Amino acid sequence: MTATSARLDPAAQYLVRAAVTAPSPYNSQPWRFISRDGELQLHADPTRRLSATDPDGREMLIGCGAALFNVRLAMRHLGFVPRLSIIPDPALPWLLATVRWGPYAPPTAAEEAMFAALPQRRTHRGPFRPAPLPLTLIEQLREHARREGAELSTTLTHPEDLRRLAGLIRAAESLRRVHPVLTTELAKWAPPRGSRRRDGIPAGAYPRSPDTTAFAGRDYAGHARTGCEQERTWRTAHPTLGLVVLLTTRHDLRDDWLRAGQSLQRVLLHATAHHVAAAVHTQPLELPELRERVRGMVIGGQYPQMILRIGHDNNAHAARTSPRRPVADVMGTCE
Fold this sequence. Notes:
By secondary structure, the chain is of the alpha+beta class. Helices cover 36% and strands 17% of the residues. It has helices spanning 3-7, 10-19, 58-77, 109-117, 135-147, 159-177, 180-188, 234-237, 254-273, 288-295, 327-330; strands at residues 31-36, 39-44, 80-86, 95-104, 128-129, 151-153, 243-249, 277-280, 303-313. Strands 5, 6, 7, 8 and 9 form a 5-stranded antiparallel beta sheet that branches. The protein has a 4-stranded antiparallel beta sheet with strand order 1-2-4-3. A hairpin with a 2-residue loop joins strand 1 and strand 2. The protein starts with a helix and ends in a 5-residue tail after the last helix.
C-alpha cells in the first residue's frame, strides 16, 4: 500500500480531512491513517509523542481518540453507520482502530450540529465571561460523555475544591517552567510569529500571560519561566473560570485513553455547537503524584483524563484556530 494510492481514495480523504481538526497535546497531531479495501486504519505516530510531557503516550492516545470520533462523525454526516474495532491487533501497538463503512442510516440533528461545529471548535485560553451555563446544556454534555463510555464530573463547584485544584495545577505548572527538558519540549511546539508550520501552537492562539485565571495556563510565550503568579484573589478570579469539569474513565488502559478522546471530542463539539468554549488544564495529570491527588477529588475513584473549564468566550481572549497538517501528510503506509 503506497501513500499515493491512499491519497487516491476520495472517501478516505474526506474522513481524514475531518479527523485532523481534532485537538491534541501541543497540537502535535500524532496520528497516521491508512486506507485499505474500504477500511480506514488509525495509527498513532510515535515520532510525534511528547516524550518528556507524555512519556506513556496517554495524552497522545486521547488526541488520537478525538480524531477517531471525527472519522465516525464524518461517516454519520454521509449517512453511514461506522463499524469500529479498537486496538484490533496487539502485535501492532500503534494500530489503534479500524473503521469500516456500515449500513445506511440518516444522521441525527445532534450529529449534524456537531459535524457543522468541526471547523469552529478551538481551545480557549484565558478567562470566560462570568455567565452561568444553562443546566440543560450541562446535563447534555454529561450525557454525551457517557455515550462514549466516560464520565464528566461536574461536582467541583465548592470554592475550596476549586482552590485545591487550582493549587495542584499551579504546582505542576510552576515545576514545568523551571524544568529544562520540559521547557525545551514546549518551545519546540510553540513556533514564532510568522512561522509557516502546520502544527504546534502558534503565536496568537494564546494570551501573552499564561496566568490570566486562577488556573495557571501553559507558558507557550515563555514570559513566565520563573513560576506562576501567586494565588489570585478568589472573589475576582473564581467567576471567570467557567464550569470546571473532570473527564474520567473507570479504568486507565490504552482503550480507556482512546475512549476518553472520543468522549472529549463529542463533548467539545456539542459545546461548540451551542456557542460555548472549553479550556484545558492537564498539567497535574502529567505528574503521577499530582494525578493521584486529583483522582482523590473524583467520586468513585475514577481516573482523571482531562481537566476542563467550560464557559462563554470573552472576545478579548478569543484564540485563533491552530493550523492543521494537510491530509496528504497524515496518510501513509504501514510499516
